[in-house]
Amino acid sequence: xxxxxxxxxxxxxxxxxxxxxxxxxxxxxxxxxxxxxxxxxxxxxxxxxxxxxxxxxxxxxxxxxxxxxxxxxxxxxxxxxxxxxxxxxxxxxxxxxxxxxxxxxxxxxxxxxxxxxxxxxxxxxxxxxxxxxxxxxxxxxxxxxxxxxxxxxxxxxxxxxxxxxxxxxxxxxxxxxxxxxxxxxxxxxxxxxxxxxxxxxxxxxxxxxxxxxxxxxxxxxxxxxxxxxxxxxxxxxxxxxxxxxxxxxxxxxxxxxxxxxxxxxxxxxxxxxxxxxxxxxxxxxxxxxxxxxxxxxxxxxxxxxxxxxxxxxxxxxxx
Length: 319
Known about the structure:
Elements: H1 9-14, E1 17-23, H2 31-39, H3 53-56, E2 69-76, H4 78-87, E3 92-93, H5 105-123, E4 129-132, H6 140-146, E5 151-152, E6 158-159, E7 167-174, H7 195-199, E8 205-206, E9 211-212, H8 218-224, E10 241-243, H9 247-250, H10 253-261, H11 273-276, H12 280-289, H13 292-298, H14 308-316
Parallel strand pairs: 3-10
Antiparallel strand pairs: 1-2, 2-7, 4-7, 5-6, 8-9
């Protein structure tokens, strides 16, 4: 990975950044696909993708009028995925949920982006920045694509040729153009491969549009639906996903090589994985004992806090 102006590659790696890119394009290339996806109701219960914020995503300038450029960072959680693979817990959790010191990645990445933004602002006169995460009305994968960080896989995820897809995206929207080279957009490297489509147990991937039918996606059901509801056909699976889903990434050939280079580390005894790596009955017993407030306290600032006690019980009780 290259250095970024005054920030060394070693410093960036210490922030768990696998790669970064730069773009001065403010408008997404895939907005028409996104707009059609919403018009077809493929967003399912994810209403925040179809409300007034939809049109804000037409341009970064709608969110930040002073915007002239963006720095885009890929935050790596492949080591956590490798560790989970070796541990093979009894209940599967999307690896990103444990990949940032057990914290909700929004808090963790926000802190790292502020460190980078403040460091650059101290060196570049009059530089101002705003942070962009997936909670903001920005098509973040398209922004990463425009910054030359990968292509859209058939499972709709951003795939980087060297890193794979076990990354999360965080960006700095800047009020200046920087003296940085612009990287060419990557081309499609999926070819005729359909492994992600074939492996999806709920048939959530639309191969023609490279989009997801949200109501059929295991991640939607186990993360976004807080109350008991009908699961998508094909769920529960034999692998017992109780929060999120990594299936389409696990079979992707572009993850095989980078994952082969990653070294697994042991989970700390205080890690949340110890809570989930037990029999269903033990977990449900502990959850039933918790009040809603004690649940929030136990899972504070983790990816599980927002789901709530009822939502987690719903997921674990389904298989």
